[in-house]
Amino acid sequence: MYNEVVMDHFRNPRNVGIIDDADGVGEVGNPLCGDMMTIYLKIDDDRISDIKFQTFGCGSAIAVSSMLTELAKGKTVEEARNISNKDVANALEGLPKNKMHCSNLGADALHMAIQDYEDKKAGISRPGPARKEIHEHAPGEKCYCPYCDVEIEEAVKFCEACHRELEEEH
Amino acid sequence: MNIVNLDHISSNPLLSEVKEAMIDAIQNDLHNPSSQHKAGEHAAGLLESARETCSQLINASSAREIVFTSGGTESVNHALKGAALANGNKGNHIITTNIEHNSVIRSLKRLSSQGFQITSLPVDKTGRVLPKDISNAITDKTILISVMHSNNETGIVQPIEEIGKIAREKKVLFHTDAVDSVGVLPVDVKSLNVDLLSFSSNTFYGPTGVGGLYIRKGARVFPLLDGGVQENNKRAGTQNLIGIIGMGKAAEQAIVHMDKRMQHLQELKNYLVEQLPSYVDEYLVNTNLKHSLPNLLNISLKYIEGESVMLMLDDENVAVSTKSACATGSLRASHVLLSLGLSHADAQGTLVISWGIDNTKDDMNKLLSALKNVVATLRHMSPLYKKQKVKI
Q1: What CATH number has the domain spanning A4-131?
Q2: Is residue B187 domain-shared with residue B262, that is, in the same domain?
Q3: Helix-then-strand count for chain A, H and E
Q4: By CA distance, what is A63's nearest residue in B?
Q5: B363 shares a domain with B302
């Protein structure tokens, strides 16, 4: 089901944990959609000097989080902002299509953490981490039927290939 | 590879007696049981002997009430679609429950697109449908009731006998999907008051791809497959004789060893339930321990997700399932567990542990030690675990 790179990051996840005095914390997802990630950033001289994650989710969600932290570590804030979910999936040498949407949330969580860092710098405070509840589709990002993996239009309620109703968002 | 198989609900190994019977059948070049020459009659004899044994396994009145199929899914499709088509002139209402297997759900969905009205009833917190809810749902248009005997994710056994009584009184056809029960528990079609019952060979250590449908004499059900006159005109197509011979042998063994097997399976279940708290904390037992299969336990481990647990246990050479294997492709929380009232987060952390006659307490010990480490690793990684701890 998963390739060797994904399994390696799942088995030996890098940068697991919490940074107590984090400069930015970002959170994405919720248990309803299956996966949830929190990213902690330590930033020195505009560069990510440390990054940690916590993830509730399937094998690919854990691998994505791990790979994301590897990609972001040492990068400037600007460089990190340009890391996309697709970059993470590519670095993992691919994810099963039906997992692309629900577990590939790492970059979103990173962006939220950067947002949190910048808000704090600008004097904006919030009670918890910066949160993004629902994974939004980036323009051009494709949707796949969660049942049969066939590419489908966004917002369709019925999969033409497997004839299943798609009650929730895909 | 030395794998501890605690995923028997997905696949059971074949008994050595079954393998021998099937190899023997292959080597003897059996002919078509419908042919009238000696070779055909010999094959027909083997076919009917397997039918007789299967009918004894479920205490049918006659072997003629057993139709051989390609497995549980075909049996269910045949029962539901065949009954709906044959009785559509009497009404169009069908009653079922919210916890059925996909073969029932999707067959009924298909029928609903053809004008049949489906009432799907909830289960209570213990995972069982209330017979009075079934009784209240029956209208003068009701032609069929379908309630599963035991659930493939939780192992919970439904009050089929009582529902059967109601169905019989109201003269409504009653089907039960007994795919995970037949050959494991004593199942008696007479005391259950069922008209139709689906079963599968692999549940009792026969080959996959073979099963049966019990159709009580006099029940009006159309065939699903039209063609030749095989199976007393109820299922066309030359039979999978080698598979059926395997199922017949497995049924014979199930009848002989039923009590001993049940005792062994129940002992393993008691042991697992007793030992779990010494290895993991903060989990839910989703299986109703009073009314359930002796060979399955469904638990939800809080703050972690089932696929991760399954993959990590797999690395420790322990095979379990995170929910029905047929459902894992859907990436959706199990409808069965949500019906029990579980939260989405708890439903995500679900493990289905199922064992067989070949498992031992030592296998359970291996699972428990591996599980302890896996749960600790994943909780350390989980943002939900941290939050919970802060709240306390």
Answers
A1: 3.90.1010.10
A2: no
A3: 6, 6
A4: B308
A5: yes
- Out of B239, B254, B269, a domain closes at B254
For residue B64, the domain's CATH number is: 3.40.640.10
Q: Does the beta carbon of A169 lie under 8 angstroms from any beta carbon of chain B?
A: no
- Do B129 and B59 reside in the same domain of the chain? yes
- Interface residues of chain B, partner chain A, Cβ below 8 Å: 303-305, 307-308, 311-312, 315, 329-333, 343-345, 348, 380-384, 386
Same domain, B239 and B290: no
Residue where the block lists tokens 């070049």: B29
Catalytic center residues of A: 33, 102
Mutation site for B-interface testing, chosen from A14, A52, A56, A145 by largest number of B Cβ within 10 Å: A56
The answer to whether residue A26 neighbours chain B at the CB level (below 8 Å) is no
Residue B135 contacts residue B166 (beta carbons within 8 Å): yes
pLDDT at residue A145, as a whole number: 58
- Boundaries of domain holding B346: 4-11+258-391
* B208 and B282 share one domain: no
Residue A4 exposed, middle or buried by CB count within 10 Å (0-12, 13-18, 19+): exposed
Closest Cβ opposite residue A58 in set B305, B315, B330 = B305
> Domain holding B331: CATH number?
3.90.1150.10
Q: Tell me the DSSP string of B96-138.
A: EETT--HHHHHHHHHHHHTT-EEEEE---TTS---HHHHHHH-
Q: How far is A136 from chain B (nearest CA, A)?
A: 18
In this structure, are B141 and B273 located in the same domain? no
Put simply, whether A29 touches B (Cβ < 8 Å) is: no
| Same domain (yes/no): B45, B144 | yes
HSE, CB side, 13 Å, CA atoms: give it for residue B35: 9
Residue B299 and residue B161 in contact, taking contact as beta carbons nearer than 8 Å: no
The Cα B77–Cα B69 span in angstroms is: 10
Put simply, whether the predicted model's pTM sits higher than 0.80 gets the answer yes
| Total domains, chain B | 2
Closest by Cα among B185, B187, B183, B188 to B205: B183
Catalytic residues of B: 326
Are B225 and B340 in the same domain?
Answer: no
Chain B interface includes A39 (CB < 8 A): no
Of B210, B239, B254, which residue sits at a domain end? B254
Q: Do B382 and A55 touch (CB under 8 A)?
A: yes
- Does the pLDDT at position A46 exceed 60? yes
Nearest CA-CA distance, residue A54 and chain B, Å: 5
Q: What are the tens digits of pLDDT across the range B149-197? A: 999 999 999 999 999 999 999 999 999 999 999 999 999 999 999 999 9
How confident is the model at residue A50, as a pLDDT?
Answer: 97
For chain B, say whether A147 makes contact (Cβ under 8 Å): yes
Tokens of B363: 């296998």
Structural domain boundaries in chain A: 4-131, 135-170
Give tens-digit pLDDT for A127-170: 778 877 654 444 455 565 555 555 666 666 666 666 666 655 44
Is pLDDT of B391 > 60? no
